[in-house]
Design brief:
Helix content: 25-40%
Number of strands: 4
Distance between the termini: 32 Å
Number of helices: 3
Number of domains: 1
Largest sheet: 4 strands, antiparallel
Order of helices and strands: HHEEEEH
Strand order of the largest sheet: 1-2-3-4
Strand content: 25-35%
Length: 109
């Protein structure tokens, strides 16, 4: 996500609250959370969820943020969380990548 407000990208508490609310949009079960504020700027946070993980990392010097969500529940899982987070931040530009991986257990990849 690009074109974001620098002050928001430096507000660790606000970003954590948005991340937690995004997870609740999908009823993800949060197992743990970890975050770190970098000096002079930048913030990373990871939610370990029962379904896998959600992570963000900010780049205030570039007015950008990376949002990563992986869930093993299904191919449509995560869109509500992503939309909530995107709408809260209001980026001017987004690069979106989606990967659907399907693996049969017991078969070689």
């Amino acid at each position: 996500m690009y074109g974001l407000n620098k002050a928001l990208l430096s507000d660790a508490k606000k970003l954590e609250n948005l991340l937690l609310e995004a997870a609740s949009q999908e009823n993800f079960k949060i197992l743990n959370k970890i975050s770190h504020t970098f000096k002079p700027y930048g913030y990373s946070a990871v939610l370990l969820i029962q379904e896998s993980h959600i992570a963000i990392h900010t780049y205030p010097e570039y007015c950008s943020l990376v949002f990563n969500l992986y869930s093993c529940r299904g191919s449509q899982d995560g869109f509500k969380a992503y939309e909530y987070f995107k709408n809260a931040l209001q980026p001017s530009r987004i690069e979106f990548r989606q990967s659907n991986v399907s693996v049969d257990i017991g078969k070689e990849i």
